[in-house]
Amino acid sequence: MKEHTHTETIVDNENVEAASIELPENVTPEPQEEEHMHLKHIADSSSLVRAYLPVSDDQGQLLGDIELERQVKEFCDRYRDLSSVNEPDPVIREAKVLVTRYTLRVNFVENSLRGTITKYRIREGMLFNIMKELLDQKDIKWMAWFKRNFNQREFRSVSDYMKLARIKNIIRYAVFGKERLIQLERQLSDEQKEQEDPIGAFLEENGIDFNPEQETDDRELRIEADIAINMRKLRKEEITEIPRELVEALVRNGRDLEKSHIEELKRAQQVPDKDVVEYMRSIIDSNGNPEPIMTPDRKAEGFKKTADRFLKAIENALGDNDYVLQFDLGAYNTLKQKVLDLERLISAN
Predict the structure, then answer these.
(1) Which helix (H) or strand (E) holds 69?
(2) CA nearest 265: which of 228, 299, 229, 290?
(3) Alpha carbons within 13 A on the beta-carbon side of 79
């Protein structure tokens, strides 16, 4: 399919409703090649047709290597039926060479395009930030106004663009892509965000793991950011014993280090017979719900709560004749003796 020069009308040969859209010269609704779609399937959307035509026309131009695209396509066509392959090894070797070259090129182009789109998205965020600030001056609620004027399903994405756009000079780093920048933003403190070049300062201190010839995995980016954030929580509280792999195990289990976990880990540092690393493992093994560390003050508090419950049970018994008749006197005598033993121990100390 070639560049368009005039307008044609798609007419479905099977009585599908016609739609007037702009088509390239020499383009027909019917497929001209095996990989082409019949345009009747998208005839009711001129924007979808306009998006589809460059995809169907591309012969490796976007890839930046028309010859490589031709070689890969011919190889796939040639070995569509593998029943005639008597010697697999040469085919495997050739496929390995092709897929290595092809993957590197596709990854590079995808990441490059992602960076360009991210630049546009940041600019979009700047526009929305300007509107929001002006609306705030007029005491107009931003979310309600947005939903009246734009597609409300886009509000969350637009909020991401606006958040990125508020970071000074972030557009310099658009090449890293939206998702990676979002994860970097999560790791910045409020003080860092006030700097003239927060992302640049972060990169100087921490570097960045980004190779444009590798496929970007958004889920892995979020995981890596979560690990970094949790490691920072530990460093802030001077809990340096926990290795990164344990923090990663917790994050990959879908958990974060909560305030209660940090408090327990700090207690583990203070109790002689407790291992901080082992307690971290218990947080992971219990899916974030480990047994609390029983320090002396906690044991005393637990005893008081137990004693209060027992005293209440005694009060209930004193007012309930049927309860008294069922009372286990042997258990009571054992408890009484233990209380006397505890009393002697407390007095001795």
Answers:
(1) helix 66-78
(2) 290
(3) 14
Binned at pLDDT 50, 70 and 90, residue 1 comes out as very low
Query: Across the chain, what does the average pLDDT equal?
Result: 87
Whose CA is closest to 111, among 214, 203, 184? 214
Tokens of 300: 């005393």
The 10 Å CB-count burial string (b at 16+, else e) for 237-273 is eebeebeeebbbbbbeeebebeeebbebbebbeeeee
Domain residues of the chain, as ranges? 4-57, 113-216, 219-285, 296-348
Cβ contacts of 288 within 8 Å, gap of 6 or more: 250, 255, 258, 261
Residue 170 has pLDDT above 80, yes or no: yes
- Token look-up 């924007």 returns 47
Tokens for 69?
Answer: 């695209």
pLDDT at 20: 57
**Which of 309, 235, 299, 228 lies closest to 265, judged by CA?**
235
pLDDT of residue 10: 43
Q: What is the pTM of this model?
A: 0.71
